[in-house]
Amino acid sequence: MSTATAKTELESAELAAPDRERLAELLVGHERPPRPSALSASVTFGWRAMLKIKHVPDQLFDVTAFPIMLVLMYTYLFGGALAGSTEEYIQFLLPGIMVMSVVMITMYTGIAVNTDIAKGVFDRFRTLPIWRPAPMVGYLLGDVLRYLLASAVMLTIGMIIGFRPEGGVLGVLAGVALLVVFSFGFSWIWTMFGLLLRSEKSVMGVSMMVIFPLTFLSNVFVDPKTMPGWLQAFVNNSPVTHLATAVRELMAGNWPAADIAWSLGWAGVLMTVFGVVTMRLYNRK
């Protein structure tokens, strides 16, 4: 050890004792800062999720280019064959395809959770004096922006190619609000898988296995009356069917009370069941 280094360490040691005493007096004389509320902590983590989108804008591809592609592809490929013209088909298709797209986007919540776990970010979150579910709720709040953006993009494209909602602005806003509430509850499924599975590829694979049958076996594209009886029984009781019907009717200016109740009920059940499972897994990680 050099003489200069030894001298520096000796001076630091001589100053350490009184400095430590003064620091202790200051710390003891002041109260600890108040613990943030559950809402404040959740909103902070939601803001963190939105900042990640700001720094990696490629994450917006699935809520911009992908919805545009779906609307144009299904409208012009199947519109003439299924409804006689694209103008008539877009009235039926757009609310349903919007439901399908937003429900599919929810799986990225689980992928984001799994990625942060792999990087060790959640180990730091658990050391913070905050409401325990705040990081998970924050992810979902941040994804609400993605749902709204995807809905706005699809409605814009739909209006350009002929979609005219008879329910007006209020009907459209009510339909989008119901879709966002359902998607918030549905996203808890993927937070569970994000904690349960080992890699983001596994989360994506399982998500696709669940979402594709659930969305395609519904009334998103066609009326279930043309389907076989055994398939109608499944489709008519699918949560995606209830949601698509509710959004479609709201945008048409109607009030489908039964389908709205089913959609909200499904959202509540999914959030309760998978929210509890998610937090148990989170506490054990």
H/E topology pattern: HHHHHHHHHHHH
User: By helix and strand content, what is the structural category?
Assistant: mainly alpha
Oligomer category: single chain
Helix fraction? over 70%
| Count of separate DSSP helical elements | 12
Shape: elongated
Main sheet attributes: strand count, strand direction, barrel closure: none
User: What's the average pLDDT?
Assistant: 85
Percent of sequence in beta strands: under 5%
Number of strands: 0
The low-confidence parts are 1-15
The span between the termini is: 44 Å
CA-based gyration radius: 25 Å
Describe this structure in words.
The chain has helices at residues 3-29, 38-55, 61-83, 86-105, 107-118, 121-125, 134-161, 168-196, 200-216, 229-236, 239-251, 257-284. The protein has 285 residues and is mainly α. It is elongated and about 80 Å long.
Summarize the structure.
The chain is mainly alpha-helical.
Write the layout of secondary structure elements.
Layout lengths: L2 H27 L8 H18 L5 H23 L2 H20 L1 H12 L2 H5 L8 H28 L6 H29 L3 H17 L12 H8 L2 H13 L5 H28 L1
Helix pairs in contact: 2-7, 3-4, 3-7, 4-7, 4-8, 4-11, 5-8, 5-9, 7-8, 8-11, 8-12, 11-12
